[in-house]
Specification:
The structure holds 2 protein chains of 2 kinds. By secondary structure, chain A is α/β, with parallel strands linked by helices. Chain A is built from 16 helices and 12 strands. In chain A, helix 7 links the parallel strand 5 (144-149) and strand 6. Chain A is globular and about 80 Å long. Chain A starts with a strand and ends in a 5-residue tail after the last helix. Helix content of chain B is 38%, strand content 18%. In chain B, the strands form 3 sheets. A 6-stranded parallel sheet of chain B has the order 2-1-5-6-7-8, with helices on both faces. In chain B, helix 5 (189-198) links the parallel strand 9 (177-180) and strand 10 (204-207). In chain B, helix 5 (189-198) crosses helix 9 and helix 8 (262-268) packs across helix 10. In chain B, 48% of the residues are buried. The chains are: A alpha/beta, B alpha/beta. The interface between A and B is medium-sized, with 24 and 26 residues.
Chain lengths: 412, 341
């Protein structure tokens, strides 16, 4: 089977580029695969199936969406909320009408009116303020002949949005842990938070909870790794909470080797997220591989992590109180950290194995590439047999046949 | 209870699964249940016919028959378990193996076209749904249960079934190796025929019939075995029991077999079994140096094992008795208690 593979790839700074770099060698041992060069408009001739990695970043995925529009295929849906992507390829290309159409498709006339408000600068950009309310995944779903998703959360959202094609849930594969030493950092304990420093990573809540923890455990330290998002005033927040100084360790964007070294040094990994775009966290996957206990938001993919691996913090009113309690528990109880870490390691080995993920991809490729032809052949035979004995389309008997087919996933 | 035992029917073919299901019905009836066999012809080619023929089972209404409620269905092999019933138990003989471990082997069915690849995946998906509906799921061997779990994630309880009822006995250490099998390529009877060619003192009796018989007979002729390999065809029960009683060992080495009645029948006659390292189900009970010999699937290795058992009568008899004790543990009373509980 010949696969055309559309994805961002390193050196692009994108989690999905890293993801593909991990996955591609395993896929290449299983199928004939051509990685399509960035900007290509169509899959090469002779392709059996085009595979499009779609995420929310228009710089990384705009060209891939353009290609999907020309030749539908299997979509690997890394985020369910695609508002940024759609805004990027419409408003970002000075095509306001397309944005209006996308919003109308999503939310009817009200959506169109809201989009007008945004274009007229009467309303703040929805992709900044309320993307989760308007995911704008409709066009991508309508073009997808099959879907690969990484979580039950995205699977369910796609189905809720009316997607009827084949959907395969392929857990994010885990990276092999490099054999490099941990960074020379420590704390009692050392907490780590990896990724952009901003609101949606719940950094304000984390800082408050950490300040509370430090009252009882002055030796605790918090390592923040990642670029500070524009408009997020980290320094002022630290000053206000009185936790500047040696309690906070800061690193900006780091390369892969440094990232692993820093992650290894941490006793607890904190991976909060809200709102969630339906994404899987590469940092959390790395933490599982390292056998580190996790504290996560009780939302989206994170909610699907087993309870023996991650403490889950509900988003909302009592978030800081609950988060503080979770951090205190893990700070005080080395035995809990140890057992959660062991469970995390086992989960990575069992559910996030790279070879297993590649096998599931191949199953998704095969299901999607010839699936329509198989469905057509089966339905043709059943309907012809029905017609031979006088079963008319739309009759109760025909509906019974359709129901029975659907029961065992043999429907269209 | 009123119980419908479901099995697909391949017209004009009769083998282990048919013996098993006929016996199951008889044993249920013997214990006071109202049991009957439900069969639907099955043809698995060409193209998507494997799905359309499987789908026929879904259209059956086995919740009642002639106004009387059916309490339970017991489905056995693909695609009989596509049947729907609130109390569907599956005693899995095997899935559609061409979609699994036989794929891309000479015994496979699906080629590399996009349509065939998708068809194979649809069979797998059908299994996940239909087997997932079962209120209890049993497999006849660890091999079958293992394949099921690897392919669908579904976990089955291992429940071997007893061999067919024959007047089993042991009339002593005879001078031939016996093969009892349906003759198709997957049973690898040619290994035994070729073993006879490598060892001029070896005598073989092949009981059974099937599509590979002509090729095997031609093979025996071409190897000039001078009548040392006798093809007995499908033999009646008494004659079969007699063959078991008078051989010195049996050969049973299919490729990755699901379960295999052969070893149990051999053991009930207190005869050891020669099997191969890649034979699957038989390895549940044929233990090397305990109940038989497990060898590489090569004619020379089979010949060496057969000669050793022939020439080491005491050990061969001890292996046979150990197998007999093992087979005696597998009874219909025990099996049905678990199946119906």
């Amino acid at each position: 089977m010949r696969i055309a593979y559309f994805s961002p790839l390193p050196p692009e700074r994108s989690g999905i580029a890293d993801y593909s770099a991990l996955l591609l060698p395993a896929l290449r041992t299983r199928v004939q695969l051509t990685v399509v060069r960035r900007g290509a408009k169509r899959p090469p001739r002779g392709t059996d199936l085009a595979v499009y990695h779609i995420g929310n970043n228009p710089d990384a995925h705009g060209w891939i969406l353009d290609a999907l529009r020309r030749a539908p295929g299997l979509v690997v849906l890394h985020d369910f909320v695609l508002h940024h992507l759609v805004a990027g390829v419409t408003v970002g290309r000075r095509d306001g009408h397309a944005y209006l159409d996308a919003m109308e498709r999503e939310a009817g006339v009200v959506g169109r009116l809201l989009a007008h408000g945004v274009l007229d600068k009467r309303l703040p950009p929805l992709w900044e303020n309320r993307p989760e309310d308007f995911p704008l995944a409709g066009e991508v779903l309508s073009l997808a002949t099959g879907l690969v998703v990484h979580s039950a959360h995205v699977h369910d959202r796609a189905r809720d949005a009316g997607y009827e094609g084949p959907v395969s849930v392929v857990p994010h594969p885990a990276w092999p842990v490099p054999d490099t030493p941990a960074a020379g950092l420590s704390g009692d304990p050392l907490l780590g938070c990896f990724g952009n420093v901003n609101q949606s990573k719940r950094v304000p809540q984390l800082l408050e909870a950490f300040a509370e923890l430090r009252r009882h455990r002055p030796g605790a330290r918090l390592l923040l790794v990642g670029a500070v998002s524009p408009g997020f005033d980290l320094e002022r927040r630290l000053q206000r909470l009185g936790i500047e100084g040696d309690g906070i360790l800061r690193e900006g964007y780091v390369d892969e080797a440094r990232l692993w070294a820093l992650m290894k040094a941490c006793d607890v990994h904190v991976g909060l997220r809200s709102p969630t775009m339906g994404e899987t966290s590469g940092s959390a996957i790395r933490a599982l591989s390292l056998g580190k206990p996790l504290v996560v938001s009780d939302a989206g993919w994170f909610r699907e992590l087993p309870d023996d691996v991650a403490l889950k913090v509900p988003v909302g009113a009592d978030e800081v109180v609950t988060l503080t309690a979770a951090l205190e528990l893990l700070a005080d109880r080395g035995d809990v950290r140890e057992s959660m870490g062991a469970a995390a390691h086992e989960l990575a080995r069992r559910e996030h194995d790279l070879e297993r993920a590649a096998d599931r991809y191949v199953a998704a490729f095969e299901t999607t590439a010839g699936g329509r032809a198989v469905s057509d052949a089966l339905l043709r035979e059943v309907s012809e047999a029905g017609a031979d004995v006088g079963i008319e389309p739309g009759s109760p008997e025909a509906k019974e046949l359709a129901r029975r087919l659907a029961e065992v996933d043999l429907g269209a | 209870m009123r119980i419908a035992v479901c099995r697909p029917q391949v017209p004009f073919a009769y083998g282990g699964a048919e013996i098993f299901t006929d016996d199951l019905v008889a044993q249920l009836r013997a214990r006071g249940h109202e049991a009957d066999l439900v069969t639907v012809p099955f043809k698995w080619y060409p193209g998507a016919r494997v799905l359309s023929q499987a789908f026929l089972w879904r259209l059956l209404d086995l919740e009642e028959a002639d106004g009387a409620h059916i309490d339970m269905v017991v489905a056995t092999k693909f695609p009989s378990y596509v049947v729907r019933h609130p109390e569907k138990r599956v005693w899995l003989v095997h899935q559609f193996r061409q979609a699994y471990e036989l794929d891309r082997t000479e015994l496979g069915q699906f080629d590399d076209s996009a349509e065939d690849r998708a068809l194979r995946r649809r069979v797998q998906q059908l299994d996940r749904v239909a087997l997932g509906e079962a209120s209890r799921l049993f497999a006849t061997s660890r091999n079958v249960a293992g394949r099921l779990e690897r392919s669908t994630g579904l976990v089955a309880e291992v429940l071997p079934h007893p061999a067919q009822e024959l007047p089993y006995r042991n009339d002593g250490h005879g001078d031939f190796v016996l093969s009892v099998n349906r003759l198709d390529r997957a049973k690898r009877v040619d290994l035994l025929v070729e073993a006879a060619a490598t060892e001029p003192s070896l005598n073989v009796v092949v009981a059974g019939d099937g599509p590979d018989r002509e090729r095997l007979e031609q093979l025996a002729r071409s190897l000039r075995l001078d009548g040392r390999v006798r093809f007995a065809g499908r033999v009646p029960a008494d004659e079969l029991a007699g063959l078991y009683a008078t051989c010195f060992a049996t050969f049973y080495a299919p490729v990755d077999e699901d379960f295999g009645l052969g070893p149990y029948e051999s053991f009930l006659s207190a005869k050891p079994v020669i099997t191969a390292t890649d034979s699957g189900g038989p390895l549940d009970v044929v233990h090397d140096g305990a109940t038989g010999l497990v060898v590489e699937p090569e004619p020379a290795a089979v010949a060496r094992a057969a000669v050793w058992l022939r020439d080491h009568r005491e050990q061969a008899e001890a292996f046979g008795l150990a197998g007999q004790a093992l087979a005696a543990e597998v009874t219909w009373d025990r099996a049905l208690e678990r199946l119906l509980s």
